Amino acid sequence: MAKDTKERILAAALEMFSQKGYEGTNIRELSASLGLVKSGIYKHYESKEAIWNALLDRMIAYYGERFGSPERLPPVPDSPEEFVVMTMRMAGFTIRDEQIVKTRKVLTLEQFRDERARELATKHFLTGLTEMFTPIFAGMMDKGLLRRDDPAMLAFAYTTPISALIRLCDREPEKTEEAVSRIEAFSRHFVMIHGAK
After folding, report:
1. Measured distance CA(103)–CA(60) in Å, rounded
2. Which residue range(s) make up the domain with 36?
3. Which one of 66, 82, 108 terminates a domain?
4. Which residues of 76-96 are buried (b: 16+ CB within 10 A; e: fewer)?
5. What is the 3-state secondary structure (H, E, C) of 128-183?
6. Looking at the 3D structure of the chain, how many domains does it have?
7. DSSP label at 125?
8. How crowded is residue 148: how many other Cβ atoms within 10 Å of its Cβ?
9. Are the C-beta atoms of residues 117 and 128 closer than 8 Å to each other?
10. Of the residues 54, 124, 133, 140, which has the fewest C-beta atoms closer than 10 A?
11. Mean per-residue pLDDT for 153-160?
12. Domain boundary pick from 66, 83, 111
């Protein structure tokens, strides 16, 4: 039961932090949203900062398990089409999973206030994607699917526009389908341009 309450607190905190930011969220409102009193929250977490850190830990684990990470890579695709399908699966998850969307909003709001949020925003919006796709591109080169080039530079060139389109979905949800179509078109164009001749 205590574990369920802790998870409920973190889920409610993610919702509030994604809407109001850390500073705009107070424990009284958080506890009221759960039907608890403040002491009910403090029974599980000693402070708002403890909730914040537990939430960041939970978000890191959730993202790594479902999306992947430089330490937990998807398999290297066996064809350009398989690469496009992998990209679209990853982009679709990132765009449509509510916890990931809320996490991105939290990191966007808090990256200027909190050092850990800043580091996670940099990792999830830029460096982690480059690190993840670098060995994928190296593997595709080894399989003869891509021309030989600097895999890290290709990973940067590939993931940056896709990340920008994902952020567009956060800002303007009505453009999500257009953004998804552009991601797929870009992915196909990229493998056509960089594919082995």
Report:
1. 9
2. 1-66
3. 66
4. bbeebeebbebbeebbeebbe
5. HHHHHHHHHHHHHHHCCCECCCCHHHHHHHHHHHHHHHHHHHHHCHHHHHHHHHHH
6. 2
7. I
8. 10
9. no
10. 54
11. 96
12. 66
The number of residues making up the chain comes to 197
**How many other C-beta atoms are found inside a 10 Å radius of the C-beta of residue 170?**
14
Residues contacting residue 150 through CB under 8 Å, at least 6 positions apart: none
121: CATH = 1.10.357
Q: How do residues 122-149 score in pLDDT, each as one tens digit?
A: 988 888 889 999 999 999 999 999 999 9
Residue with tokens 């009193």: 37
Strand, helix or coil for residue 72 = strand
Q: Are residues 73 and 156 in the same domain?
A: yes
For residue 77, the 8-state DSSP code is P
List the structure tokens of 85.
């399908």
pLDDT score of 86 more than 70: yes
The pTM of this model reads: 0.84
Structure tokens at 77: 């695709």
What is the pLDDT at residue 159?
96
**pLDDT tens readout for residues 7-56:** 889 999 998 998 888 888 888 889 888 888 888 888 889 988 999 989 88
Q: Any alpha helices (H) in the chain, and if so which ranges?
A: 2-20, 27-33, 38-42, 48-66, 80-96, 98-110, 115-122, 128-142, 151-171, 176-194
The pLDDT value given to residue 62: 85
Instruction: Collapse the DSSP code of 71 into the 3-class scheme (helix H, G, I; strand E, B; otherwise coil) and give the result.
Output: coil
